[in-house]
Design goal:
This protein has 3 domains: 159 residues; 162 residues, Neuraminidase; 148 residues, no CATH class. 1% of the residues lie in helices and 49% in strands. It contains 1 helix and 53 strands.
């Protein structure tokens, strides 16, 4: 998922409908809430084709494609405006050579340009030869700087070749080019170049090969991230542990190496290279994450996720943190993102049985402290839910997408906004699932199918709704905002606040807004129009507004509050009761025996005809 400058998103996904010819890479444009703006667009058809999306400053984007054409691979670019309309014509294909393309990457630069890098592999008389290529392009698709061609490198006999490389966009417009190649499970070549914003190499990290060959099993297990000061973070796996290196903008090491020991008490250790990640955080720190496995008698019995946080000075914070997995399971793919408040969110797919795969998430603070327990992204369990993809939003919340029904013929990509603690959580115009955290969350509910998820003890949470709605458990407050007619608002078993004070459109004649507290000791606040206020079984406080309000009193602890001159108000009660000030009428309804009904100092109507 790519975030555009105007707050919109591009969501890309692959299909495999070979029978109908629908296989390929597609994408859609989404608005700020995750709702689709455009339909699905095919961008790459063949399995060997590649496509990437580069955001531009004006809210538009560039699609960078590499397409197989006979024995050649052609690189092309097409620009689109902020509404997704193509502007200008697609560039003519630029040949990447006739070799087989491997490890193809497109990296966005700070100013809207991009870097294309790839390994080309071909068979020669000397064996398999691999050549590493790199070229930078500006916003208009013009090549600039010094292109890099490294190699060819040859394998050792019939041993397979393995490639790994990373281009890291650095603060200030430059980039780092890190690579490694192994043959026969032994590192053969490695390097790290730092390039200026003009695309010229300015420094070389001379001892990177030594760093990456400390253990053969860690030869290609590395990942990188940019620092806000123009430097970079280099993380690799060595002999089962994880080593963190940091370099300044000139490619020189400016911190001592830090080793993260992954032999944890529960028997977990660092997992495959593809699951080792480093994420730069908003406050200048960063977090290293990885997948670990737990074994018994030589067999893998479960896997888990682990994180280690670092502060802005590159110092380790506390200890390795285990991401909450709710018991033994097998973790597949995961995604981790930095949040705007300096913390981070992590989501993963989680197999608990042969056909049961869920997607979960958890939110952490900048120092690695858990701000939420793990929670489900989807509303149903026991389905094939995989491949979570997260994007941070400016208000501290995040947008999550995942694949539902991955092993079926009708897989669906689902998305939802999830809030960071103390944040506003908004869904789309459709039926959404919204989950909060430990803070005081506020939800926008505008569809009967919306679902709000909260856990006990996680703050004072509020739903703002324009429709009839019943609070789900562990949500404390409901506000009617933007309604256009009569609605019903229901609390839950807890102590709730139901508030209709923001209603500014009168219901049609003969209808009214109805507030039902249900269980608990509730606080109900009516609108400026005539409302029905029923606190439910607890000791409730009910305050009317303008208009002729009607109250239901069924507990000796119930309290009715009215101001002078605010309509002709009535209490319906099944118990002995005395009218409070500024309430005009009392009706005995549903009583089971003798009761006493008392008026107040005003002119009252006391009515027992329903007994």
């Amino acid at each position: 998922m790519v975030k555009l400058a105007n707050g919109r998103f591009l969501l890309s996904y692959e299909t495999a409908e070979y029978a109908t010819g629908g296989a390929g890479l597609y994408y859609q444009m989404l608005d700020e809430s995750g709702a689709a703006i455009t339909g699905s667009r095919l961008v790459a058809r063949d399995y060997y084709d590649r496509a990437s999306f580069i955001a531009q400053e004006d809210g538009g984007y560039v699609v960078v494609k590499a397409q197989k054409e006979g024995a050649d691979t052609l690189l092309s670019f097409q620009r689109f405006d902020a509404d997704g309309a193509a502007t200008g014509s697609e560039t003519a294909g630029i040949s990447l050579g006739g070799s087989e393309i491997a490890s193809f990457e497109v990296t966005a630069l700070e100013d809207g340009g991009w870097v294309v890098s790839w390994w080309g592999q071909e068979q020669t008389e000397l064996g398999t030869a691999a050549t590493l290529h790199l070229q930078a392009y500006d916003q208009e698709g013009n090549a600039f700087g010094v292109p890099a061609t490294m190699g060819p490198f040859y394998n050792s006999g019939f041993s397979p070749l393995f490639f790994e490389h990373a281009v890291t966009a650095l603060d200030g417009g430059g980039f780092a080019f890190t690579f490694g190649m192994s043959s026969g499970y032994e590192l053969r070549y490695a390097g790290n170049w730092i390039y200026s914003a003009e695309g010229n190499p300015i420094s070389w990290t001379p001892d990177l090969v030594d760093l990456m060959t400390e253990a053969s099993e860690g030869a290609l297990n590395f990942t990188t991230a940019a620092r806000p000061d123009g430097g970079m973070i280099f993380v690799r796996r060595v002999a089962g542990d994880i080593v963190v290196e940091q370099f300044d903008g000139a490619g020189q090491r400016d911190h001592d190496a830090v080793t993260i020991e992954t032999d944890l008490p529960n028997g977990a250790y660092a997992g495959p290279a593809s699951f080792l990640k480093v994420t730069a955080l908003a406050g200048g720190g960063f977090v290293v994450s990885w997948e670990g496995v737990q074994t018994s008698n030589g067999f893998v019995v479960s896997t888990g996720l682990f994180v280690q946080s670092f502060d802005a000075d590159g110092n380790v914070i506390d200890h390795v943190v285990t991401v909450d997995g709710n018991g033994p399971a097998y973790i597949g793919e995961y995604d981790i993102i930095a949040l705007s408040d300096g913390g981070f969110a992590i989501a993963w797919d989680y197999r608990t049985g042969p056909d049961d795969v869920d997607v979960l998430a958890q939110v952490f603070g900048a120092t690695g402290e858990a701000k939420t327990e793990s929670f489900l992204l989807q509303t149903q369990t026991g389905l094939d839910q995989i491949r979570p993809d997260l994007t941070a939003l400016a208000d501290g919340s995040f947008l999550a997408f995942w694949t539902d029904g991955a092993n079926s013929s009708n897989a669906i990509i689902r998305g939802q906004t999830f809030g960071n603690p103390d944040q506003l959580i908004k869904g789309t115009a459709g039926a959404d699932v919204m989950a909060g955290g430990i803070g005081n969350d506020r939800y926008i509910v505008n569809h009967a199918g919306d679902v709000v998820i909260e856990k006990a003890g996680e703050g004072f949470d509020t739903v703002d709704t324009s429709i009839s709605y019943t609070l789900t458990e562990n949500v404390e407050s409901l506000r009617l905002i933007g309604i256009k007619g009569a609605v019903d608002a229901h609390g839950n078993a807890g102590n709730n606040w139901l508030n209709a004070a923001w209603v500014d459109v009168a219901p049609e004649a003969g209808t009214m807004i109805r507030l039902y507290g249900e269980g608990g000791d509730d606080n109900l606040l009516g609108s400026r129009y005539g409302d029905r206020l029923d606190g439910g079984t607890g000791a409730d406080t009910m305050t009317g507004g303008g208009g002729n309000d009607r109250y239901v009193v069924d507990n000796v602890g119930d309290m009715v509050i009215e101001k002078a001159g605010e309509g002709f108000d009535t209490v319906d009660t099944s118990i002995s009761y005395t009218l409070t000030a500024n309430v005009e009428s009392l009706r005995l309804i549903g009583i089971k025996g003798a009761v006493d009904a008392h008026g107040n100092d005003g002119n009252n109507w006391l009515n027992a005809v329903w007994v």
